[in-house]
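A quick aside before the break. I want you to see a complete sequence-to-structure record at least once, exactly as it would be stored in a machine-readable document. Don't worry about memorizing anything.
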Amino acid sequence: MRKNRTLLCTAVGILAAAMLSTGAFSMDGEGRDGAVRLLTTVAIPGTKANTTGGKMYIFDISFVDQTTQTYYLADRSNAVVDVVDARSNALVSQISAKPAFKGFTGSNATSGPNGVVAAFPWLFVTDANSRVVTINLRTGNTVGDVSTGGAPGLRADELAYDPNDGLLLVVNNADSPPFATLVRVNQVTGALAVVKRITFDTMHTGVDATNGAEQPVWEPVTGKFYLSIPQTGPNAKDGAVVRISPAGTVEVKYPIQFCQPAGLTVGPNVDLLVGCNTVFDTAGGAWDSTKDVTAAPIQVIIDARTGAIDTIVPGVGVGDEVWFNSGDGNYYTASSTSPLRPTEVISATPLTAQGAAILGVIGARDKTLKQLVPTFNVPAVTTGPLAHAASTAHSVAANAKNNHVFVPLGANNVYPNCLTGCIAVYGTRARMDERADR
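That is the input. The structure line, written in tokens, reads:
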């Protein structure tokens, strides 16, 4: 416990240093300093199926298919998957399933689409009512459609794909207890078939998941799936990453404290970056912006083979999706609930205000925080003609060929081309300028 508390205290110093670094927040200049900054934005138009006033506010997981350099976003507001050419940063299409995706219902737990993974020519997407579909990217047709069998109305959420065995691991996070499902993919036709359910409770797997289940990944060296479990048991400080075999067996649980694991991504050297979704404080409790106890946000890097905690990276806020970009050797975190985000307090209750969230940049080689870059949160408006749902910058993916990093933003009048919602594209202008000079 003393060691963990020391690390939490160290996080405070790192966070303070990042706040004082003007270069970390730079969005202009010549761009030859290697700093990540906003490059452009891609406008996302409303569709006829839009469920949030004609604008994009609600979205979930995003994914870049490195073989085709194509970006996909699960866009719940528009009940589609937005498709962007990750080379030219141009919107290509907005794909729907047949029957249509659920869209946003007012609750994430019953909405969709949610998770996206591409393995050309197949696009795998999850939806409400425990649905998983395959879309043929050549034709746009829905060629696979199965249910993971969760409670009525609840969604299938995030998913990962094992191309060696032709398996998806699909997570039902809103069910109690949460569970995952192995789904077989016919790699010739795209058809799907349920293989096995994996329930995260003490009786079935010894994993007492008491606060859902989050991002899964498949790691090619070990040939295993890994899954973030935010909380195990009654104590908020206790979470884990579990290792799952292609046969659907939970082989081991890697405990992680003061984090509540959510995002998960495969880094170099068989490492995993664990994105935390709760800010703890220096006393080891959940941080409260109204209390006189200092925030200590962290991310955690572990060895996928042993579960050993390699590095605790202090100073980055918490969110949902995280991503490793092999092109520049950086981890990126969509930290929408950073302590740096603006808040207001009414009657001692902290409320999120419109303003900057954080794109965290962590060097995978030296395993240290490199930069905090502004993204954008839009709070809910609950009354009046402009009422809309809240939107947080919690999704991130990157194209390793040009090192463009994609962060979807809810509709706002701050970022250009974003009045109906947009995808902000971040990167280093240095690389773009150098290519133009050749």
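Two observations worth writing down. Residues 9-32, 431-438 have pLDDT under 50 and may be disordered. The radius of gyration is 20 Å. We'll return to this after the break.
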